[in-house]
Design brief:
single chain, 184 residues, alpha+beta, six-stranded antiparallel sheet, 9 strands
């Protein structure tokens, strides 16, 4: 029996692969724990935040609010302005609709919703000014890692590809284990 047909190798490969996929998916789906990784600004307010180069998720959050079955709407009067702290020669960041990545979450602190994505051209310090959200309870805007890639055709293709690899790995493992038990 060769190495490729070894039941022990099949079991190890299957376990490692399943653990890796579970870790990867969990890290992508834990936006509520990462939503403020780069900083939070209370509304109204201003703050200096250190933002990395690339895609950054912008989320709206209300502390102490649990809407039950209702969804959290981002206030129409909410205004977020993000400008480089140095200001020299660079314009402000453009916040864009996150498309399908508008997930909502509820945790022990309140309720939040992904409201925008920002493409940060240069990592560094940015001055964030937030206003509006009149009549809302403890509103804040936070900045964290983006997972918007998963809502694009390429991201969906990646997930489908991973699912097919998992199915093939499980089928291979079952075949190897079946062969190993039939040899006895």
């Amino acid at each position: 029996m060769g190495l490729a047909r070894s039941p022990r190798v099949a079991k190890v490969v299957a376990v490692v692969f399943v653990v890796w996929i579970a870790w990867w998916l969990t890290s992508l789906l834990r936006h509520d724990e990462q939503r403020d990784r780069f900083g939070t600004v209370r509304v109204p307010g201003t703050a200096l935040l250190e933002l990395p180069e690339g895609e950054v998720a912008v989320s709206y959050f209300e502390r102490g609010v649990d809407l039950g079955e209702r969804t959290l709407d981002v206030p129409a009067d909410l205004r977020v302005v993000v400008l480089p702290a140095g200001g020299a020669g660079r314009g402000g960041l453009v916040l864009r609709d996150p498309g399908l990545a508008t997930e909502e979450w509820v945790n022990s602190e309140g309720t939040g919703r992904r409201m925008a994505e920002a493409d940060v051209p240069d990592g560094g310090r940015y001055r964030v000014a937030v206003s509006g959200a009149h009549g809302r309870k403890n509103p804040e805007v936070s900045f964290g890692p983006s997972t918007a890639f998963l809502s694009t055709p390429a991201g969906i293709g990646l997930l489908v590809g991973i699912a097919l690899i998992v199915i093939a790995a499980v089928a291979w493992t079952v075949a190897v284990l079946r062969d190993a038990t039939s040899d006895r």
